[in-house]
Amino acid sequence: MKNTHRRSFVKQLFTGIAGTVLLSSHKGIETKESTPFLGSNDSSEAFWENVKKQFKFAPKLRYFNNGSLGSCPISVQNATNTFRATLDAHPSKYMWGGWRDEKEVVREKVAKLFSVSKEEIALTHNTTEGMNLIAKSFDLKKGDEVILIDHEHPSAVIPWTVWQEEKGVKLVRPVIPIMPKTIADIVKVYEKAITSRTKIISMCHVINTNGMILPVKEVSEMAHKRGILVAVDGAQAPGMFNINLKELGCDFYTASAHKWLFAPKGISVFYAKEASQHHLKPLMVANGYRDASIRRLENYNTRNLPELLGLGSAVDFHNTIGKDKISKRSYELKAYLRDKVKDNQQFRLKTPELDELSCGIQTLEVVGKNVRDVRNSLRDDYHIDVRPMTTYGLNGIRISLAIFITKKDIDYLIDALETIAG
User: Fold this and answer.
1) CATH of the domain at 378
2) Over the stretch 295-305, which tens digit does the pLDDT of each residue have?
3) Distance of CA 58 to the CA centre of its chain
4) 156: closest CA among 267, 231, 216, 233?
5) Quick one: pLDDT band at residue 33, thresholds 50, 70, 90?
6) Do 305 and 29 meet the contact criterion of CB atoms below 8 Å apart?
7) What is the pLDDT of residue 26?
8) Model pTM greater than 0.85?
9) Residue where a domain stops, chosen among 257, 282, 316
10) Which of 284, 346, 364, 368 could form a disulfide with 421 if both were Cys (CB 3.0 to 4.6 A apart)?
């Protein structure tokens, strides 16, 4: 029976996701719920080989750079292209009103994925936009403080620099240990940085440089006891492992969906806790600016709706496989990679080992080799795409272990690195 399930996996993904988007020249696009994959209990490597077939990469390419930008599975590409064709067939209808209900279906799917209300989800463009929205909204005073650790992504720091620091707000930049042993080690860094002038903690969920997971829940609990708001750059987390935003407890969470959720490029998820939404002001205003709901934050008038609706198909793809199953696979690949290199003195892992502190991003140094030379050799000689990390003394390649990566791909990567290491 399992073999039958495996053979039918490709067909079910296409018919269960992209195939649920139906094109009609008269009625536009009608969306339906995807059919759950019947072989969902199958966790064999053959199952994940079939998942890999849902993505189409350049010939010979092994893509370990999902942390920079993800790929849309073929089903999401097809769905998005269908939406685009429908829009071009009757532009004014579908840009302004024709897809109103469909947009709300996407919002509801995203909200359910993150275990929050659809009235707490805005559908925006990218993480950078979300960080700008947050940083610009606050009327902070000279001398007020915002905490951002040293490892924050530039797109999370620059908005605070431009909208707040330049008017006298102090950005506090504590140094976080690159290889902490416990969650408490990280929480203490934030706790020690707090003063009576601290108004906001802005933190990432997964650090871009070495894949370290920061304890959003614990920091939020600690901050809220002191009346401090918490904003989260979640660019690297959603789709890699399970996220319950209600349980995390943060006030704001912004994340590009075009990385680990495999959605079309230029679409993101913005979460604002209902009790904290009154702090936010839209970056852009147009007709409908008096809307009191979270939709006021995404009121762009004309926008790329096929990509927005494609996000719904990406969530369907995610759900068809199963978010628990994806999370488990991410940790399985992490363990497999780390086990392959743990006894090799030519390699040095620069990512914390505990599952609470890292998942599908691992940064690895080839001892004695410049990381850019390693990256270039992987790219030119082995058709492997990774991201070189040179800051904070990492000198390591960032390896992204998305669900289209198989254990054979990891074997190929490690064999290449052993050859490069000499």
Assistant:
1) 3.90.1150.10
2) 999 999 899 99
3) 23
4) 233
5) very low
6) no
7) 27
8) yes
9) 316
10) 346
